[in-house]
């Protein structure tokens, strides 16, 4: 990119593992990709001290419009898209890093409509989903009949409460299926673990969160990787089965490859108009 060209300004919402990784990438490598850091927000602002310069710290999400970001990236919690997604889309393109937020019918409709109205893009990062663009093409062509996403991890890699948390505890010795059914009901039960399934639902709007099937498995043999499988069925006997092995440190919720995948997703976000776009 030539020095005179305007850089795309990126706002980062959330400063946990992914947020810190993206901020570092933007500061180290952003310029060569035509990107610059516009702001960083975190619920607990003290976490920004010592690493994020004062002039880049956004104090209140309601002031986001004043920061002239071209793209806002949420890497905090699904509640951010639910509470602020609409105002983000009025101001900029929006990459929703926690797409399980969209399993809430009202939120998905509200954000689709806000993107269309503002002419800004609602970006969905593919995460650990393999073949998302192909699924999207099949869906757009009216050829997609069924889609199942199966995710298997070590029981320590789940952050689960309630009934699913209890089931995961029982998976220390043997493989346990924690959930099998529509992704819609699973997202609020396991919001941090099934973002890849939510991305699949957004890639396949003809099936959506009610039609795409999710299967979540705790497996004690998976001590250093996660497994994501997709089974796609289309018209006329068409079928695809993918199996992705995602290296992950013991107990990590997010696979190592997911960090690099997030950065690649951000590089795709060049503005695609008022639509949902898998990146
Ligand atoms: N799309 C994907 O494939 C994918 C992959 C990994 C993680 N994620 C999602 O991205 C988000 C960030 O992941 P991470 O690994 O960086 O998590 P993390 O726990 O390391 O960081 C989360 C950050 O958000 C803040 N936060 C937590 N709850 C909040 C709330 N209710 N309101 C506002 N801020 C809150 C925390 O203070 C922390 O700074 C999570 O929602 C996670 O589920 C998505």
TrEMBL record:
Pfam families: Asp_DH_C, NAD_binding_3. Gene3D superfamilies: Dihydrodipicolinate Reductase, domain 2, NAD(P)-binding Rossmann-like Domain. InterPro entries: Asp/hSer_DH_NAD-bd, Asp_DH, L-Asp_DH, NAD(P)-bd_dom_sf. It comes from the Eukaryota. Residues 14-125 form the Aspartate/homoserine dehydrogenase NAD-binding domain. GO terms for molecular function: aspartate dehydrogenase [NAD(P)+] activity; NADP binding. Residues 174-258 form the Aspartate dehydrogenase domain. One of its GO terms (biological process) is NAD+ biosynthetic process. Belongs to the L-aspartate dehydrogenase family. This is Aspartate dehydrogenase domain-containing protein. It comes from Pogona vitticeps. The lineage of its organism: Eukaryota, Metazoa, Chordata, Craniata, Vertebrata. The gene is ASPDH.
